[in-house]
Structures are given as C-alpha cells and as structure tokens.
Amino acid sequence: METKVLIIASNANAIGPNNRRTGTFLPEIAHPYAEFKRAGYQIDFATLTGDTPYLDALFLADDPDNLAFLVGDGWAKMQKATKLSDVDVSQYAAIFVPGGLAPMVDMVEEPLLKKVIAETYERGAVVGAVCHGPVSLLNVKLSDGSYLVNGKNIASFTTAEEDNYARPDVSFDLQTALTEQGAIFHAAEPWSANSIADGQIVTGQNPASAKGVAEKMIAILAA
C-alpha cells in the first residue's frame, strides 16, 4: 500500500505591526517535497482555510529542488490544497508542517490543527515540522492532558536566529514557548542544519534543516 504524507500549510500572508509579507518558506516545502517524492510517497496538501497558501523566499528559486517544486507538480498541487476539516487525516502515515513566518500567525491556537496533530501522534503516525512550523506543536495536548512536546527532544527556529531575522514581527519567541511547555530544546549554530527525531516526532531548526527532517521522517516510515 502506498505511503501517504499530508503537508499542512499556513494560509497567512502577513505578520506583525508592520504587515510584513510572508508565507511558506520555499525550501522548507520544496526540499521535503523532493525527498518524499523520491521515496515514492503520495503527497497531498491541506491548509486551514482551504485557500491557496502563499510562498515566501522565491529569490531562492535557482536551487534545483526549489525550481523543480515551482515548475513541476509541487506548487500546482499546493495551489489546490484541501481544507483541513475536509481531510481524513487518519489515512496518512505522516503529516508535515513547513515553516516560514506564516505559521506564527494562524497555527498557534487553531483547535482543529491541535486535534489533528494529537490524534496523528497517538495513533502512531509520524509528525514532522521545520523552522517556525513547530509552532503547530505548541499547545497540543494529548488525551492524558499533557503537552505533546513535554519531555520531547525538539528543534525549531531559535531565539538567536529570530533576533536577527523577524523579532519585531513575531508576537512571542518560539524557542521559549516550546521550552515552557516542557520541550528539551536543541539549538545548533544559527542557520546550520539541525534536525532531530524523538520517536515519531521529527523537527528541524531552519531552512537548512528541511531536507534532514524529511530524511528522518522517511527513515522512521521505512523502519
């Protein structure tokens, strides 16, 4: 039976008091998409509203996997993303949330997303996220009332990285928030590749970590 992966993307296109333009950061979707495709997986897209998501960092389109995503079937499929409430997520072996600043807008508290992530984890499927995407794991409570990230080894965009990227635009610090909910946070040097798997949860620090997150998710699914 074909392995199915659901990529859940933000619908936000602006953030912060200065209305900074944002979206899904191109390599954080394109690099995992390329790895999942090479693994032979069926890849589907969902968004919170069902509207077409936005892409950020199009200036990186000269990267081979980024370009292949844009001109191949990746972006074409992403534009036709299904509304998350219309998806039977139980049919997927893994879910993946890419970053960009956009998830910091609409994925902090979204109840359905939190429910989907908790149920995906508790049925033994794989949950992956990269950069600001791990904000989707924040405020997820399991059936025993504990936070999903409590006691888990987690990586995300770091305080040091945010200080030199979008500090005036974000309403809170992601590393701090994850740590406050019990995450064992792993921060590498800013902008260096850093992905980590803890059981079925795979997270990554920044755009350079997106490929590694996908590779670790594939290794878990193949095991």
UniProtKB/TrEMBL annotation:
Keywords: Glutamine amidotransferase, Lyase, Stress response. InterPro entries: Class_I_gatase-like, DJ-1/PfpI, Prot/Nucl_acid_deglycase. Residues 28-218 form the DJ-1/PfpI domain. Pfam families: DJ-1_PfpI. The keyword Acyltransferase does not apply. Belongs to the peptidase C56 family. HSP31-like subfamily. This is Type 1 glutamine amidotransferase domain-containing protein.
